[in-house]
Amino acid sequence: SLRPPGLVLPRIMGHRGAKALAPENTLASLKAAAAAGVTWVEFDVMLTSDGQPVLFHDDTLKRTTGVAGAMAETPLAVVQDLDASHGFGRRYGRRAEAGFRGRADCRVPSLEQTVACLLDLGLTPNVEIKSSPGLAKETAEVTLTRLLGLWPGDRLPPLISSFERESLAAASRVAPQWPRGFLAEKLPADWRDAMAALDCASLHLYWRRTRKADVQAAKAAGYAVAVYTVNGLRAGRRLLDKGVDCLITDRPDRLLAAL
Ligand code: G3P
Ligand code: MG
């Protein structure tokens, strides 16, 4: 049976804010995405050692902050003072980094700071639950419980996505009314049953492994389809031609200008 039409995804969505334009998963990155013209942004949420949700991608702190340690072993008081512009310099050059280094909006943001910034910018979030090992359920429960208290009822609801089925199941219990996205690097054989059981609204696939037949099957089943992370124009066009609804990209500026 067809799902009721509901989730309308934007054609272009920023990835970790706008990862190529500013340090990923920071308020600076959300601002860069909004300045580029997107209306939606994807970002990752993890828990600190004292159970506070923050925007962060890796289990360890090193790549983006330059500091040794694991997110799951570091309290919010320490995490929130880390400068997340460190990895930006390594990847995009020291001159790019210099423009961000030390800025208050490049620290690791709490969920509260993030929501305030999103509302200010008029952005809708795709919140990816990205847990440290063993914390898939707890990370979703804490994040969704907190987000329910922060997100205004008169705004478009957040889209909650995860690679972890346990996180999606927890999200469906805590915030059943908010849409969920099923993330898969490789589409699993049981995707139909899993997406139905978790009552998902969208399928989020790794762009290089996205086959037209799978996109069409998902669309026929009533799901919206997003792909990550698409930064090139030719790849973007090919994926849209396959029927993909949404390109999640580090370069929203480039894709918005041409697609
Ligand atoms: O949510 C899409 C994408 O962000 C998933 O991969 O590793 O960039 O979080 P990753
Ligand atoms: Mg992500």
TrEMBL record:
GO terms for molecular function: phosphoric diester hydrolase activity. Transmembrane segments: none annotated. GO terms for biological process: lipid metabolic process. It comes from the Bacteria. Gene3D superfamilies: Phosphatidylinositol (PI) phosphodiesterase. InterPro entries: GP_PDE_dom, PLC-like_Pdiesterase_TIM-brl. Pfam families: GDPD. Residues 10-259 form the GP-PDE domain. PANTHER family: GLYCEROPHOSPHODIESTER PHOSPHODIESTERASE, CYTOPLASMIC (PTHR46211:SF1), GLYCEROPHOSPHORYL DIESTER PHOSPHODIESTERASE (PTHR46211). This is Glycerophosphoryl diester phosphodiesterase. It comes from Pelagibius litoralis. The lineage of its organism: Bacteria, Pseudomonadati, Pseudomonadota, Alphaproteobacteria, Rhodospirillales.
